[in-house]
């Protein structure tokens, strides 16, 4: 008998065909995210769960007595309660590698858009407000090329950003990470720094660290005060790596110049969040990996992870 799996997100015909060879597949087809109660009901007899962002905790695991693997279609896995999953002998997997370059592209898009005020000036043109003015300084931005980039979290995506910075934009690259990355130092001239020095010296500060108990609110009021008044803060990791209220105050008090945000404390971002009203903040709806090619590759990798575990070969990308 084939193992049973449940998918909480839409899957392409290719992936469905692949999964169906090895598993009996059921999937959520509703427009909104599946409700918790329905998910718990669906999990009663399944061996594998293919999902993204759904909280995997003791309560869920207690309701899924046959569950052996949860395959996340994302590189981040902060939705996993790792201790609980270990206790219940459930393997957790993610999708590294296939999204590195796409997330690095988005990181640069946010740097360029915030420094050159692309969203703000796009709105100005489309609103018919491109009036001749003696003062064309009104449209001035800040150069990205030849500036200093500080990367917090030098994993694979960090290295892909460093490569663009060094060879595409002639930037000096600083980084802060749990461990030194001699490869990145050699290839991109990246300089290892303590966090405070990185914050003081960087024109662009890019958050790429995974969200863990150690990195939650890694950047708060004290850290924003160390940044240059001209600095741009870019977050493509998780909203909670930053104290969002401190970020709002830093922008309001002009302690930093601008920000580019893919992620927020609460997603979807709340309508009254001051960040979405600020012209010097570029916001996008958590789209780091959102290209068709990359999302297809992530979905296939996630499917391969689930099949690999359920056919006894072990996970390709186990997170613990
Ligand atoms: C991930 O996969 O964790 C990223 O947030 C992609 O955007």
From TrEMBL:
Single GO molecular function: gluconate 2-dehydrogenase activity
Lineage: Bacteria, Bacillati, Bacillota, Bacilli, Bacillales
Keywords of this entry: Oxidoreductase
Protein name (record): Gluconate 2-dehydrogenase
Positions of the D-isomer specific 2-hydroxyacid dehydrogenase NAD-binding domain: 108-288
Stated family: Belongs to the D-isomer specific 2-hydroxyacid dehydrogenase family.
The UniProt record lists the keyword DNA-binding: no
EC numbers: 1.1.1.215
Stored Pfam families: 2-Hacid_dh (PF00389), 2-Hacid_dh_C (PF02826)
InterPro entries: D-isomer_2-hydroxyacid_DH, D-isomer_2_OHA_DH_cat_dom, D-isomer_DH_CS1, D-isomer_DH_NAD-bd, NAD(P)-bd_dom_sf
D-isomer specific 2-hydroxyacid dehydrogenase catalytic domain span: 10-318
């Amino acid at each position: 008998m084939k193992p049973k799996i449940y998918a909480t997100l839409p899957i392409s015909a290719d992936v469905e065909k692949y999964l169906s060879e090895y598993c009996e597949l059921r999937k959520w087809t509703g427009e909104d995210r599946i409700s918790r109660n329905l998910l718990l009901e669906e999990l009663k007899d399944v061996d594998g769960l293919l999902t993204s962002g759904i909280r995997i905790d003791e309560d869920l695991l207690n309701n899924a007595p046959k569950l052996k693997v949860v395959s996340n279609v994302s590189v981040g896995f902060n939705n996993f309660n790792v201790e609980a999953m270990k206790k219940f002998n459930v393997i957790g997997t993610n999708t590294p590698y296939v999204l590195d370059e796409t997330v690095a592209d988005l990181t640069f898009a946010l740097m360029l858009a915030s420094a050159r005020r692309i969203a703000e000036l796009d709105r100005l043109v489309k609103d018919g407000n491109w009036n001749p003015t003696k003062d064309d300084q009104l449209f001035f931005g800040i150069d990205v090329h030849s500036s200093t980039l500080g990367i917090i979290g030098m994993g694979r995506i960090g290295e892909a950003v460093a490569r663009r910075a060094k060879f595409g934009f002639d930037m000096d690259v600083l980084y802060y990470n749990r461990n030194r990355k001699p490869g990145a130092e050699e290839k991109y001239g990246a300089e290892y720094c303590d966090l405070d020095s990185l914050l003081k010296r960087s024109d662009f500060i890019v958050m790429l660290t995974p969200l863990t108990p150690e990195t939650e609110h890694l950047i708060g009021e004290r850290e924003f005060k160390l940044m240059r008044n001209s600095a741009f803060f870019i977050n493509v990791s998780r909203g909670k790596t930053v104290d969002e209220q401190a970020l709002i105050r830093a922008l309001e008090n002009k302690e930093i110049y601008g920000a580019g945000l893919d992620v927020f404390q609460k997603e979807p971002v709340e309508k009254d969040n001051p960040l979405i009203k600020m012209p010097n903040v570029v916001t996008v709806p958590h789209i780091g990996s959102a290209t068709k090619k990359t999302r297809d590759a992530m979905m296939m990798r996630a499917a391969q992870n689930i099949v690999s575990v359920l056919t006894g070969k072990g996970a390709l990308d186990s997170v613990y």
